[in-house]
Amino acid sequence: MTPVPRFGLLAAACTCAWLLVHGCGPGPGYGVRLRPRRLTPLAYKQHVPNVSENNLGASGRAEGKITRHSERFNELVCNYNPDIDFKDEERTKADRFMTKRCKDCLNKLAIAVMNQWPGVRLRVTEAWDEDDNHPSGSLHYEGRAVDITTSDRDIKKYGLLAQLAVEAGFDWVYYESKYHVHCSVKADHSVAVEKGGCFSASGLVTVAEGVQKPMSNLRPGDSVLALSESGGIIFSRVLLFLHLDTEHRSTFLILSTENGHRLTITPNHLIFMAPNLKLDYNEYYASFARQVTRGAYVLICGQDGHVHPSQIVSVSQEERIGVYAPLTEHGNLFVDGVLASSYASIEDQRLAHWAFGPLRFLVGLSRVFMAVNPLTVVMQGAAEVHTNFSSHQILSEGHTSVIHNSSGVVHNAVNKMNSTCFRKHNSMLYFDCLYGAQVGVHWYARLLCTIAQVFCKPQFVTEDPVKEISFC
Question: What span, in angstroms and rounded, lies between the C-alpha atoms of 281 and 332?
Fold first, then answer.
């Protein structure tokens, strides 16, 4: 990993400390008054996502029954969370056994239940099944499914309980019975769990003069169509890629709108949506793409150059190779004509945007320095990555860039960042004078997660920055 500048460490630490004492609300705008988010209870017999449980876009295929005497029994963990009531009618503690991912989601849900209904606790009626009480192929046999209620057994709460389970990260939630909610997760070793993604290589963005460019050809320094804080359509500079892996295979959701847009996005990426038609863009909040269902509304860029709501008419999925997560100055961008966030894995646009503030500031400083002395920077960068200029094609689109420094002075440069990008044998390698060459998850995302694990409460942070807090 490239050495981290001391100033970057200090800035990141200050940001994390700020996050401990400030609350942030959802929404694409940053200058509006914060409003509490409304949770929409699931309807009876509704499940999220709107695919079958064993679909790859949900919890995935069953992998076989686990018994106490099988080797896979060691994959299960025992949940001793005192804030959860376990029915355990068999008196064998079977209801406490589950996969680690299921345990993590359940613990998050327990906190959400107590916050939603003070004095009420989460209750688990069924988890791992070792007595053949479920149909063949049930994820209960693998410790990947739980049936839940509230401790007061108030059936009027179960619709909202199901929505809270979706928010807690369960991969499939089903308001199955009037007397319980069924939740399940992917296998711990599932590729979809181990690595997030963002946008596919074929995702289209709009650059200068209305030209559309596939995500695979996007470079730091390009300006893409995005939404400003005031709700206007603008061009926002791509600073870098938070995640870039041209070889990684991932499952993508295909969200089709009534206007003909088809957004390809991974389930854990943030997209601005509303369950019902809202005319004000501020009413659209950042939500995981996996929670977008048919009938929901997203924001699109109309032919008149203004943002408009558009209804989702279908949700499908497919596997593709290549994941791309561009970070823009405004933290959002239009991909395939639909407004999406630059961030993922944490369902709070403001929180993620503030957390990456120091990184955006450092990139801005590096660009100012490059504008002052570009030759020195390029040569130093070339020396560090041992690049032979005669054996690489320098990528220069020739677009005019506008760079703002901290004093508000505007500097015009012609794709300074692109002069440090190189392409060889159809694979991308880009060098940044401050951060060095980077393919995969960006070092700042890893650093941010590490710092958060030290200062923040455990329930707000995942254990592996590569698996979950890749912000992609």
Answer: 14
User: Locate tokens 């501020």: which residue?
Assistant: 282
pLDDT digits (tens, 9 = 90+) for 323-375: 899 999 999 999 999 999 998 877 788 888 888 888 888 887 777 766 655 44
- Written as one letter, the residue type at 102 is C
E-strand ranges in 46-154 read: 47-48, 77-78, 84-86, 97-98, 122-126, 145-150
Q: Which of 246-255, 328-337, 402-411 has the highest mean predicted lDDT (pLDDT)?
A: 328-337
**The one-letter amino acid at 71:** E
- Among residues 251, 244, 226, the alpha carbon closest in space to that of 315 is found at 251
Ramachandran angles phi, psi of 373, nearest 5°: -140, 70
H helix intervals, 134-276: 158-167, 191-194
- Residues annotated within the binding site for Ca(2+) are 89-90, 95, 125-126, 129, 131
> Residue ranges for the binding site?
89-90, 95, 125-126, 129, 131, 140, 147, 182
Task: Give SS3 for 207.
Answer: coil
Nearest Cα neighbor of 144 from 176, 115, 179, 185 is 185
Identify the CA nearest to 312 among candidates 49, 53, 55, 28: 49
Degrees (nearest 5) of the Cα angle 98, 102, 105? 145
Supply 226's token pair. 């995005």
**Contacts (Cβ under 8 Å, ≥6 apart) of 109:** 122, 148, 164, 165, 168, 170, 183
Residue with tokens 């320094």: 221
Helix (H, G, I), strand (E, B) or coil at 390: helix
Dist. CA 331–CA 352, nearest whole Å:
9
Annotated binding site for Zn(2+): 140, 147, 182
